[in-house]
Amino acid sequence: MAVFPSTAAAQARNKPRRPRSQRAAYLFIAPIAIGFAVFYIWPLLQTFYFSFTSFGVFGGNSWIGGENYERVLQDVTVGRALLNTLLYTVMGLITLPVSIIIAELLNRPGLRGVAIYRALYFLPFVTLPAAIGLLWNWLYNGDYGLINEVLSWIGIDGRYWVSDPTTAAYAIGLVMIWSHVGYYLIIFLAGIKAIPRDYYEAAELDGAGPVRRFVRITLPLLSPSIFFTSVISVITSLQAFDLIYIMMSQRNPALGSTQSIVTLFYKWAFEENAQGPAAALAFLLMLLIAALTFLQFRLQKRWVHYA
Amino acid sequence: MPESTTATRAAAKLPRQAGTAQGTWGDDRAPARRRFDTGALLTHLLLSLGAFAMLFPFLWQLLTALKTMPESVRVPPTFLPEDWTWAAFEKVFTSLPFAEMLTNSALNTLGRTLGQLVFCSLAAYAFARMTFRGKNVLFAVFLSVLMVPSQLLILPQHQIIQQLGLLNSVPALFLPGMFSAFGTFLLRQFFLSLPRELEEAARIDGAGSFRIFWSIMLPLVRPALAALAVITSMWSWNDLLWPLVVNTDPETMPISAGLSSLEGQYLTDYPVLMAGSLIAGLPMILLYLFLQRHFVQGIALSGSKG
After folding, report:
1. Is residue A134 within 8 Å of residue B244, measured between CB atoms?
2. Does residue A102 contact residue A190 with C-beta atoms inside 8 Å?
3. What is the set of domains in chain A, with CATH numbers?
4. Which of chain B's ends, N or C, has fewer CB atoms near its CB within 10 Å?
5. Average pLDDT by consecutive 10-residue portion of chain B (306 residues)?
6. Residue-wise pLDDT tens digits, A259-284
7. How far is B177 from chain A (nearest CA, A)?
8. Looking at B86-226, which runs of residues are DSSP E strands?
9. What φ, ψ does residue A160 adopt, rounded to 5°?
10. CB count, 10 Å around CB of B228?
């Protein structure tokens, strides 16, 4: 246990009866602390160690210094995976304005059926990504898919959306947007409901139209929610895996142009027995997540208004 | 027109919003009416369009699942099936241990959710309401667990499960997921908001720490427990990466990984793929429809506090 000589001693002096309730507190925390130690903290240290080692064919690993990191930084597939992942991140952020607009529409005073709309928009988010992936692969199907059928009505010759390297990543990104709209909608709806109606009424009296009210009242007052969701969205997108894994079969010619950092990690760690480089890749991913999150927190002062 | 039916059904839910607008109702009635005709109609139109985009893929999934394989790939496609058939659903259950997979998913969901409710609420209560040495450091460690992406842990976690001899077992699915930093923080926020006097009164009456926690404090955070349970259930049921790593044997896979096998087995039998994915998604959709309030609260809670 960590020791804090000064504070601990001070506490002991001030409140002599503490030890008994302290024991209870430790008992309360013990189960989860053990779980964290075994399944989270120890593995974290181990992955850090793995990232500097090479795994032997017959088990056991040997220290190889920074070689894994060198390999990761020089590997062309990592560069492509990074670019794809950034594309997913940008597309993920597009979800936010979509959700905000829907939230603003739902916030119309006296509008009926809000609960029903909200339920429908949230439906894709509760459905498991594995099922969503199969469903959209079917819609995107080049020969029999509904999307190409509908496009043919207006004379457009559709593509093989998910096996064409030029469109596959966008096709997947679109599904990500579709399935997350409802999630952000709930957060924005809660944020918008918290904005006092008087503000809108006062703005209306001053002659502000719906667009102006949205830009001048809704957006600034919603900015804490927008900031929070953009942080969540970036973290989620940087870890994109499920949909890509399900939608792209191993023989898909567009595999390289859709692979994310995490699908590459999975391939290295569990299919190609390259645990060392995989561990290094995972650490670089964490650094990327930390860096982008930090950047967002730094930039927040410029545009987030806290009431 | 959809509004008329949705309006009557939503009427029960309406008073809250109506309440906020009430102040303006008395003198403003006529202009409000006029606005409803154009603006509200346009709003409904846009929202219905979006709702259609959300719902239609699921409808197409169901219609495809009820078609025969040849009919599903006909060009141009039929909208309603010509021969309604359950054959695809039967195939899903006979070709894979689909029922076992559903059971595994249920057990995984149950294990993670119960685990989190117990472990997180205990720790959350201690962090919120008790003083003890090293609290801040421990709390910082918990915070760091929350920030580490799961990919960083998965290789050693897999090894630990292997060393425990639990690969390809149901406990492997839920073991690490029973401990959640997120759940601990969520519940801690709630425990923090409860009045001190309750505990003090109970302590004077001679109740011990566990008794105060169990019979006084825990019942008061029931809404947060429900929200956490529902959100955890959803994440557990839908999780894919971890099950793929630990359980490669179809008999022990949950349904998420099972769908991936189904895809490998029935590459182009779309009715079977749609039937399988439909069944796999249904439990969470039903849970959501019945416990909507808790879902919304869980999302809003995790969304409002950064």
Report:
1. no
2. no
3. 76-303 (1.10.3720.10)
4. N
5. 39 40 42 62 94 96 95 90 93 92 97 97 94 91 86 94 96 95 91 88 87 92 93 94 95 95 88 96 94 86 51
6. 999 999 999 999 998 999 999 999 99
7. 9
8. none
9. -90, 80
10. 29
Nearest CA to CA, how far is A45 from chain B (Å)? 9
- Residue A4 is which amino acid? F
Task: Kindly list the residues from chain B whose CB atom is less than 8 angstroms away from the CB atom of residue A42.
Answer: 156, 160
Residue B195 structure tokens: 């009045």
Chain A residues touching B272 at Cβ < 8 A: none
- The 3-class SS string of chain A reads CCCCHHHHHHHHHHCCCHHHHHHHHHHHHHHHHHHHHHHHHHHHHHHHHHCCEEECCCCCEEECCCHHHHHHHHCHHHHHHHHHHHHHHHHHHHHHHHHHHHHHHHCCCCCCCHHHHHHHHHHHHHCCHHHHHHHHHHHHCCCCCHHHHHHHHCCCCCCCCCCCCCCHHHHHHHHHHHHHHHHHHHHHHHHHHCCCHHHHHHHHHCCCCHHHHHHHHHHHHHHHHHHHHHHHHHHHHHCCCHHHHHHCCCCCCCHHHHCCHHHHHHHHHHHCCCHHHHHHHHHHHHHHHHHHHHHHHHHHHHHCCCC
Cα Rg of chain A (Å, integer): 25
Do B272 and B61 contact (CB within 8 A), yes or no? no
- Separation of CA A216 from chain center: 29
Residues of B in contact with A117 (CB under 8 A): 47, 50-51
Cis-peptide, bond into residue B149, ω within 30° of zero = no
Asked if B259 reaches chain A (Cβ–Cβ under 8 Å), the answer is yes
Whether the per-residue pLDDT at A307 is higher than 70: the answer is no
Dmax (CA) of chain B:
78
Nearest of A11, A37, A30 to residue B131 by alpha carbon: A11
Distance from C-alpha of A177 to C-alpha of A99, rounded to nearest angstrom? 10
Residues ≥6 apart with Cβ < 8 Å to B259: A128, A130, A131, A134, A246, B276, B277, B280
Q: Which of B255, B277, B256 is closest to B266 using CA atoms?
A: B277
- Measured CA to CA, the distance from residue B239 to residue A5 in angstroms comes to 44
Beta bridge partners of A8: none
Judge whether A207 and A288 are in contact, CB under 8 Å: no
CA distances from A218 to A79, A188, A214, A228, A302 (A): 39, 10, 5, 16, 17
Indicate yes or no: CB of A28 within 8 angstroms of CB of B209. Answer: yes
Q: Which of A43, A183, A285 sits opposite B156 (nearest CB)?
A: A43
